[in-house]
Amino acid sequence: MSINLSRRKFLQGSAAGAVTAAASVADAAPFDRREPRPLAPKAVGMLYDSTLCVGCKACVSACKQANGMPVEQPERLAAWGEGAWDMAEDISGHTLNVIRVYQDGTMEQKDRDKDGYAFVKRHCLHCVDPSCISVCPVSAMQKDPETGIVTHNPDACIGCRYCVYGCPFNVPQYQFDETFGRISKCQFCNHLQKEGKLPACCDVCPTGASLFGLVTDLQAEAKRRLAAKPGEMYTFARGKLGGDRPGHEAPLGHYQPHLYGEQESGGTQVRYLTGVPHEKLGLPKLPDYSFAAVSEGMQHTLYKGMIAPLALLGGLVYLARRSVKSHDDDEDSAS
Amino acid sequence: MSEIAHRPLGGRILTKPVMILGIFVLIALYFIARRFLFGLGDVSHMSNGFPLGVWVAVDVVVGTAFGCGGYAMALLVYIFNRNTYHPLMRPALLSGVFGYTLAGMAVMIDLGRYWNAFNLLMPWYAQLNSVIFEVALCVMAYITVLWIEFSPAIMERMPPSLRQRYNVDKVRAFLKRYMYVFIGLGVLLPSMHQSSLGSVLLVMGSKLSPLWYTNWLPLLYLISALSMGYGVVLLESTLVSRAYRLPSESALLASLSKVVAGILALFLIIRFGALLAGGHLDLALAGDFRGNLFLIESALFLAPVLLLATPAGRASQRLRFLAAVCLLAAGSLYRIDSYIMAVNPGNGWVYFPSAPELMITIGMVCLEIILYLLFIKTLPVLRGSANQPQGRLS
């Protein structure tokens, strides 16, 4: 009986305490986010216009060629095409970009949410404030200070796969099927760009659905398309925005009034215009800051100049020394 | 009191339980060999949706929390100067030595490009914003500190000839003199990396269920590590004193239980407070998989608080034991959930460990138990009175 009584008392007391303490936790924010990263001065990027994409997958095969990646076939289709036809269903350790299709109901009309279908391209979005770089312990992920391209250095990489874990778009892919696997991710054909060429996918895109350019230019172009009247004839650039290739005339798509990547995760250098809501195309809803800014805000608060840990260490060593001494004295007096 | 000292248990090493555990270790070795020959995908179900599996979530994130016994006790004995708990120190330290060393081994199996692992120590590769970088360095340093803290127990038992040849007594004297530095480090390092195991998850953002994702993750991880450390001490001293008929540390454990109940209550207050503040508490009652996981976790966290709330509960060996089991289950589940089960990478990815993957984890735990038994039988770890016969079976 006495046990029950004291337990009840304890519960009452702790419940009251819990409510007060919970209220104070609610008010306090343990730390601030790190300042958002700015767009690189000569940031290059891509505007992917889902309404222009015809799903030909020329970009997928050009990407494989440009990056020396093998053809992929799901096991159940292995007998088909005898390894000549790439059938990757998503990006993987051996596929850096892929065209996926959204399907609904009768699939009567392209770029329609209901009873329609739409294409979407999957590869690295080259975040302005990338999580993969923030989590990498050995600086294997790097962001070019000029162009903002996010590259990967396999010689530094230890294969811990935190970039895979932390990327909000699930882009970096580890080769689990290899004995000596590595991380694969789109590096925006950095090697071709150094030779003055376009990224392979933008280079071969027949409709300009994958359009290369400076991020600031692409942003303005996307806003123009969003501002114009749907169905109106419009001249779409191909290859590179502002390049010398001839464009083509086509009616403007019925866009969702949202340029994906302008704000998402602190902004991305690859941005999307789509006819169906972006969540349905596997582009996740994200806040306008990078989660890397959250974890770095935490770390920078705790470990600023290593002052707090060193001060703590000093205190701990002092206390430990005092205790060890007093314990020794106890033993001495006991013996 | 003076004749009660640390001493080896003695007794046979190759007992039947050890041999059975050994079989599991051999099975694990077979799959570890396969992993290095044919790659991670050959033995594990990890994928690019769930790139971290049980080796990280269980062997490292839960394993090091089980290894926090030494950390938790050092905090009590040396920082809060509660010398009465000193008899529990060495066994707790030993479980830390193995918990952490084997977690380090698990990482080497798990790393996809293990041959580059030394890059972690190359200053030109260091990435100071990376939480994982900090965890890796802290864990490496702490494994070293743990072995140093435990080394007197080994040196005490060295044969005199060896001791003379390698000047061991001089090293011992040096260590004894400056042990407080290592004790300080041995409290600082786990405080850093155990909280950082929570900070790692801050980058997960919307991939992690809001029932687990909070800016208080680092503090929650730190508290859960401490509570699990004390949980291991409660569990271990009960088991060992029963199995080997050693004097029970009942009075000590009862007062330790009070500390445990206190920090667990703190954990619950912060967790629920943060959920209330974020307005996500309704998800707990959604009735879905993650909501139910959260409820099970919370019940397991609350149970030890209630069990240990009264002096009668704390005095009962059975209730203390039950509380320790609940709290270790709660902490483990919390860690596995937040690293894997509460994570939703989207795109229909699912993860359940493969049998070989689990066998490697099980083999590692078996190895840990074998080594623990070996050490307490041959080294002065446990406390016993000197006039008691050596070992239980002698």
Q: Could you explain how this protein is built, in words?
A:
- The complex is a heterodimer of chains A (335) and B (394).
- Chain A is α+β, with helices and mostly antiparallel strands.
- Chain A has two domains: 44-286, Alpha-Beta Plaits; 288-317, no CATH class.
- In chain A, 33% of the residues lie in helices and 14% in strands.
- Chain A contains nine helices and twelve strands.
- In chain A, strands 9-1-12 form a three-stranded mixed sheet.
- In chain A, 43% of the residues are buried.
- With 394 residues, chain B is mostly helical.
- Chain B has a single domain (4-385), classed as Formate dehydrogenase/DMSO reductase fold (Up-down Bundle), CATH 1.20.1630.10.
- Helices cover 68% and strands 2% of the residues of chain B.
- Chain B contains 14 helices and two strands, in the order E-H-H-H-H-H-H-H-H-H-H-H-H-H-H-E.
- Chain B has helices at residues 16-38, 40-43, 54-66, 69-79, 89-110, 131-156, 160-165, 168-199, 217-243, 250-278, 289-307, 311-315, 317-341, 355-378; strands at 4-7, 382-385.
- In chain B, strands 1-2 form a two-stranded antiparallel ribbon.
- The two termini of chain B are 24 Å apart.
- Classes of the chains: A alpha+beta (335), B mainly alpha (394).
- At the A-B interface, helix 1, helix 3, helix 4, strand 7 and helix 8 of A face helix 1, helix 4, helix 6, helix 8 and helix 10 of B.
- Chain A: GO terms for molecular function: 4 iron, 4 sulfur cluster binding; metal ion binding.
- Chain A: It is found in: Cell envelope.
Structural domain count of chain A: 2
Main beta sheet strand tally, sense and closure of chain A: 3 strands, mixed
Strand arrangement across the biggest beta sheet of chain A:
9-1-12
Total number of helical segments of chain A? 9
Count the beta strands of chain B. Answer: 2
